């Protein structure tokens, strides 16, 4: 049993190490990029805090002194890292509120959006992919392929705009943006889900086609199992393995999509917050947001790892 | 349980009407295995698929399959007999067992889902089937944790669970090394001994000999001759059968005299030499302290079962893999491409969309070789010019392997590493390619490292024979 526990622990430990690395890299790169941006940080911050009309060089200088922005950059970075180790993300330079406080609400909105988009993409992509795999080479296969290529080729903001024009402006079925209730959730999550489904339907198609033609399924039938039992007991799990593995990769695309989609639909999640913080040069907020996103990806990947371990016994076990 | 089968005028046609199996009439009953012996493309596997009712949809079948006096139903109704009246042992069972399910469950589900027994009894029965075949310790293992022989026994346990009177076996020894092959054939004979009707298809005379029973030799969709196995193999009437029997390595003429124990070094200078070679993959030592040298004009064979490290040894000598310990020395002043490799599976060694003519033209352009060179080699390898415009999928295994040989020889190699070069070929083709290789070694004075699991083949081809045991290279005795 010791070996079995290790089988689960090892990937989790390696993900934990990855999380540490992500925190370090995201923090450093975020910090470096923010300072590489043109424009004066203190000026931008003052403009964000007091309004752009009353800001002058004096206000900016006061801001600089108050926040200690004139100290060496390396020192500012080390300070941030030191705080992160103590699980403190610092305070927003604009509002003065703790970053964690600012993010708590926004993270909930993003989790809602992602939590809606992922199942929706599975609901759209998997049945289409399975149908294409079972009828490969025939019209459902060609139709699903064309759709997937089209959706994949269109960038998320264009797809979002197209859906907005069609479903909100023309048909007036759904609100084009905002966050009052469930109706506002539909368009952004659909935009995200379609992009993800374009990939997952292809993977499901390949995987189902391979399993359908495999000797494993043939032997299951030859044993005397009914088609339903053969697919249920020997087809689905084997077909799910590659689909699940690709889901892990897709999560990175999800983060990218969230940034664009939240901004486009004015959804108050952390992607939206990140874009705002970048404009305001609110460095702790940018670093904090990027950190949470990075750790989110690592966490979800760890969950995918566990799911893969659960359905694929070959992982982490010695072969004959 | 009975299980008398009669095929009446069984014919299988391709979509364009070409007969692949032509008017076959055969009978089989409990206790006496029926063996169909033939090469790839002789239609022998189609016969099994026709009995099973699992022919590819574009093929047409006529004629009758009668089981215990009743013609078998067509189409979907035939499927109702699977696992109840007819069972099929798949080729390479390790690929057909579900990689994500433990061994016991794969047997128990037959009792549970096909025969409708309650779960606890299904498990108990399944455990008994594993015990019967001596693999009870595999109950909680997954197929990838089993050896080839164990996987085959597990597949047999599944089929015993079905209790179907008719057992079909499609190339039951494919992919097994010589010792495992004999075991597998014996086990199948036991199935017949238990009162089942066994119909087996094979290209391997050794397997046919062990199975015994009734033998039918197939060529181009027809039965060439049939009769009691023992008599037919001893005294074949047809010239083709005689050639098939003569193609077994144990029947080859012995032309080379060799010492009973292989000397460690070649008589002349070595073209490739490995000293105290070691190789580890992760935590596993595949090779340890191996000293080997191959000289010009000699064949050195390395024997061993699958996975013993013999391919790794060849790859180390070629420099395709770096050694973990020790060093490799190749004859000085020679271009790296004069050390060549011949792969086990010819189709995977060629670009699938490229004709042979293009493949050779690219090679010629890369190395500045004259087209006349290729023509000379093509004649020597007996490859007619008509084959040049074909792609790999349109060539037979033997033709493709000879093209691979042509490709290697064009670069004027001093050393050739042949990795199971004939294991995927039919017996007569195997003999042709092997004798051709042997002839080329003396003719062109090159050193050949032959890696194989077939001891008889090694003894017929090599000057010196070694085996790999527990990661070490040992000289092997030679029967001559």
UniProtKB/TrEMBL annotation, chain B:
ABC transporter domain: residues covered: 5-245, 272-479
Domain of life of the source: Bacteria
UniProt xrefs under PROSITE patterns: ABC_TRANSPORTER_1, ABC_TRANSPORTER_2, SIGMA54_INTERACT_1
Gene3D superfamilies hit by this protein: P-loop containing nucleotide triphosphate hydrolases
Subcellular localization, as worded in the UniProt entry: Cell inner membrane
GO molecular function: ATP binding; ATP hydrolysis activity
Alphabetized UniProt keyword annotations: ATP-binding, Cell membrane, Membrane, Nucleotide-binding, Transport
Family: Belongs to the ABC transporter superfamily.
Name the UniProt record assigns to this protein: ABC transporter ATP-binding protein
Lineage of producing organism: Bacteria, Pseudomonadati, Pseudomonadota, Alphaproteobacteria, Acetobacterales
